[in-house]
Design a protein that fits this description.
This protein is of the alpha+beta class. Helix content is 21%, strand content 40%. The chain is built from 2 helices and 5 strands, in the order βββαββα. Strands 1-2-3-4-5 form a 5-stranded antiparallel β-sheet, covered by helices on one side.
Length: 98
């Protein structure tokens, strides 16, 4: 029996009201909080080719029953979480050091 690939698709509305669509690759929970690793999903082939292939890592927060994804402002926190995602996703992706 073959397994079908069904990606977890997330639509995010930014502060300008513009919608962005992402595929959720992974999620983790640490003592610092909950986090997701995303990649953009595009409708146009040209947009796919123009993508830089960067993994997007965001922190999950909740307020008044609503779930929000927000950037990780603290560099140390971002680096720590980024390394965890790199290790977990290394079988699927290759990562370059900056």
């Amino acid at each position: 029996m073959s397994e079908e690939y069904n990606p977890d698709i997330v639509t995010v509305v930014d502060e300008n009201g513009e919608e962005h669509t992402f595929e959720e690759l992974d999620r983790i929970e640490t003592d610092s909080g909950r986090y997701v690793a995303l990649i953009p999903v595009y409708d146009e082939a040209e947009d796919i080719l123009d993508d830089d292939g960067e993994l997007i890592i965001l922190k999950v927060s909740e307020e008044d029953g609503e779930t929000y994804l927000e950037p990780i402002e603290d560099d140390n926190e971002f680096n720590e979480i980024g390394k965890i995602f790199e290790e977990r996703l290394s079988d699927m992706f290759s990562f370059e050091e900056e």
